Amino acid sequence: MFEHFFTCPYCWETISMLLDTGVSKQQYIEDCEVCCNPIEIQVSFLEGELSDFQATTN
């Protein structure tokens, strides 16, 4: 697991998320822990290292 900090695209608060480094490409919806709005998360790992992270409005 890998902890990644990013800014919510709705409320602009910095939040953290645990990412699974064992899955090379991931896409899912997760609610912001501050404002509860749905964030679309897209994550890519290359050889266990984070290569791309996007958090966008749904």
Q: Helices and strands: which structural class?
A: mainly beta
Order of helices and strands: EEEEE
Per the principal axes of the C-alpha atoms, what is the gross shape?
elongated
The count of β-strands is 5
Poorly predicted parts? none
Helix content: under 10%
Number of helical regions? 0
Note the beta-strand portion: over 45%
Number of domains: 1
Strand order of the largest sheet: 3-4-5
Mean pLDDT, all residues: 95
Quote the distance from N terminus to C terminus: 25 Å
Radius of gyration (Å): 11 Å
What profile does the largest beta sheet have? 3 strands, antiparallel
InterPro entries: zinc_ribbon_bacterial
Pfam families: Zn_ribbon_21
Protein name: CPXCG motif-containing cysteine-rich protein
Describe this structure in words.
- With 58 residues, the protein is an all-beta fold.
- It has one domain.
- The chain is built from no helices and five strands.
- It has strands at residues 2-7, 14-19, 25-31, 38-46, 49-57.
- A three-stranded antiparallel β-sheet has the order 3-4-5, with no helix packed on it. Strands 1-2 form a two-stranded antiparallel ribbon.
- It is elongated, with a radius of gyration of 11 Å.
- This is CPXCG motif-containing cysteine-rich protein.
- It holds the Pfam family Zn_ribbon_21.
- It comes from Formosa undariae.
What is the topological layout?
Layout: E1 2-7, E2 14-19, E3 25-31, E4 38-46, E5 49-57
Antiparallel strand pairs: 1-2, 3-4, 4-5
List descriptors:
single chain; 58 residues; mainly beta; three-stranded antiparallel β-sheet; two-stranded antiparallel sheet; 5 strands; 0% helix; zinc_ribbon_bacterial; CPXCG motif-containing cysteine-rich protein
